[in-house]
Amino acid sequence: MNSAERTSYGSTWYAESMEPAPECGRLAFDVDVDVCVVGGGLAGLTTARELALRGWSVALLEGRRIAWNASGRNDGFVLPGFAESLDKIIARVGRADAKALGDGASLCARFDRGAAHARRRARRRLAEGVEDG
């Protein structure tokens, strides 16, 4: 990673110790796929992988590099909740919608399903002898 990337990524131990990402050029040709996923963060990568595992042809487009922003700074944690204060959520969506978003039962149920899915995928990859993170 060059110094400009380190500066824009943030001055952290993670940025200083990470391996340089391979350089990729711009998409310079037409691609005919079933689905185009825009964004190479955790959500985009997961979406693209799940679709590909189901037999769909997928192209993933990322403007900078894989896990460039928030996804590259969280070390792959699977956690419930929001990365914002309740006051800011209320200011943005209103009290009723904030309450619906923060409903403990539905939030925990969604988190439990997502975490269970991540564990199943990891176990399957380990059973296959694949160590691709």
Task: Write up what this structure looks like.
The chain has 133 residues and is mainly α. The chain has two domains: 1-76, no CATH class; 78-133, no CATH class. Helices cover 47% and strands 6% of the residues. The protein contains six helices and two strands. Strands 1-2 form a two-stranded parallel sheet. β1 (35-38), α3 and β2 form a beta-alpha-beta unit.
Note the main attributes of this structure.
single chain, 133 residues, mainly alpha, 2 domains, two-stranded parallel ribbon, 2 strands
Task: Tell me the layout of helices and strands.
Blueprint: H1 3-9, H2 13-17, E1 35-38, H3 42-53, E2 58-61, H4 86-93, H5 95-101, H6 104-127
Parallel strand pairs: 1-2
Concise description?
This protein has 133 residues and is mainly alpha-helical. It has 6 helices and 2 strands, in the order ααβαβααα. 47% of the residues lie in helices and 6% in strands.
Largest sheet: 2 strands, parallel
Radius of gyration: 18 Å
Per the principal axes of the C-alpha atoms, what is the gross shape? globular
- Main-sheet strand order equals 1-2
Low-pLDDT runs of 5+ residues are none
- Structural class, by secondary structure, is mainly alpha
Task: Determine the strand fraction and express it as a percent band.
Answer: 5-15%
Number of domains: 2
> What percentage of residues falls in helices of 4 or more residues?
40-55%
Count of helix runs: 6
Secondary-structure element string: HHEHEHHH
Q: What's the rounded overall pLDDT mean?
A: 77
Distance between the termini: 20 Å
The total beta strand count reads 2
